[in-house]
């Protein structure tokens, strides 16, 4: 089924943005997969794995924020222009796929959304078929290439979405900035881990660059630019997105420590094993040091980057972070960020129902779920 027919299944785009994004992605990937199979059949199964990864989960947060920024800045909710905008913002999910595939490889993560990560999947394929060389190296190479392909196809999907040339070009600056910021944030993440930087400033910088910018702020910027919004509206939406995006990452950090594995799709404590210098851990070690709790501080520091961390130690770290007040401090920071974000959102008049929907999206993205 082509994208023009989706209203028959889901109603207007406003009523089910994520479902429409899903269909747009499925149609686009099916076409690219068929084209690739015709010229490089040996690559077909690899491309199939990428398609399955993109379509295998995710809440489609990024295109949803972009869509409602476009609607709020005056974009109409139906018609061919709306379908073109939908295709354009759906390309954000391919950037997300690139980030996740590469991030899992860099973090040596084994599970994503309850399934083997891409590099693990391809290493297993290598072993099962008795191919030559090291399975892990093959898996890493496949993940790098498929992540790169997702990024290339994101550009192709955006450029080929059918937007008027002036609207497409108007949204290029946030699109281009978002790609670079996402990569810079990933580098900052591994750099912070390599340096062992425990500061709150470093943790917040990683969260802003790696998640806040390309998850909320730039998608909002992109949607507003597609609608030709004035600078005042763009600035307010970006301020709203920067703070909500940061609160969203802080919530994700808490879920990584305390969330239900069946919900998060990743084992509890993975951030510890990967050595993630989150704000939660920064606050915890700072508070332990300030209180003279040297043994507790050593437990927290020793857990970071310990690939063999057992469940009992994870539980001890979790209890310590609550007892030290680190969880409460991070929750308070999220509340402050949400308040300032809502103030920014309320400072401009948006076409309804966009303002109310964006406020609801912000609350949903940052609410306590554990």
From TrEMBL:
One annotated GO molecular function: prenyltransferase activity
Biological classification of the source: Bacteria, Bacillati, Actinomycetota, Actinomycetes, Pseudonocardiales
Species per Swiss-Prot/TrEMBL record: Actinokineospora auranticolor
Cofactor: Mg(2+)
Identification of the protein by name: Geranylgeranyl diphosphate synthase type I
Nucleus as UniProt keyword: no
Any one Gene Ontology BP term: isoprenoid biosynthetic process
Annotated family: Belongs to the FPP/GGPP synthase family.
Keywords carried by this UniProt record: Magnesium, Metal-binding, Transferase
């Amino acid at each position: 089924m082509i994208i023009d027919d989706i209203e028959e299944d889901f109603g207007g785009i406003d009523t089910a943005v994520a479902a429409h994004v899903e269909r747009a992605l499925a149609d686009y990937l099916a076409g690219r997969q068929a084209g690739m199979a015709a010229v490089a059949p040996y690559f077909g199964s690899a491309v199939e794995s990428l398609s399955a990864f993109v379509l295998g989960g995710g809440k489609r947060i990024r295109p949803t924020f972009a869509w409602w920024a476009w609607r709020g800045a005056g974009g109409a909710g139906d018609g061919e222009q709306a379908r073109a905008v939908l295709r354009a913002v759906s390309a954000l999910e391919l950037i997300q796929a690139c980030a996740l595939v590469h991030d899992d490889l860099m973090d040596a993560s084994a599970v994503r959304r309850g399934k083997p990560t891409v590099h693990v999947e391809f290493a297993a394929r290598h072993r099962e078929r008795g191919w030559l060389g090291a399975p892990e190296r093959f898996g890493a190479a496949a993940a790098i290439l498929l992540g790169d392909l997702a990024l290339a196809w994101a550009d192709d999907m955006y450029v080929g979405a059918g937007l008027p040339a002036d609207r497409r070009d108007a949204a290029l600056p946030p699109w281009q900035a978002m790609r670079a910021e996402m990569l810079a944030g990933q580098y900052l993440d591994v750099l912070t881990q390599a340096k062992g930087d425990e500061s709150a400033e470093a943790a917040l910088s990683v969260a802003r660059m790696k998640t806040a910018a390309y998850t909320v702020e730039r998608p909002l910027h992109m949607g507003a630019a597609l609608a030709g919004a004035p600078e005042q509206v763009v600035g307010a939406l970006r301020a709203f997105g920067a703070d909500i995006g940061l609160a969203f990452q802080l919530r994700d950090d808490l879920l990584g420590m305390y969330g239900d594995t069946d919900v998060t799709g990743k084992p509890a404590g993975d951030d510890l094993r990967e050595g993630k210098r989150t704000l939660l851990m920064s606050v915890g070690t700072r508070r332990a040091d300030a209180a003279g709790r040297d043994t507790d501080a050593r437990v927290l520091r020793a857990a970071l980057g310990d690939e063999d961390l057992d469940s009992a130690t994870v539980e001890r770290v979790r209890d310590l972070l609550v007892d030290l007040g680190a969880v409460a401090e991070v929750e308070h920071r999220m509340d402050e960020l949400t308040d300032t974000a809502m103030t920014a959102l309320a400072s401009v008049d948006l076409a309804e129902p966009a303002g109310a929907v964006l406020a609801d999206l912000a609350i949903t993205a940052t609410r306590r779920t554990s």
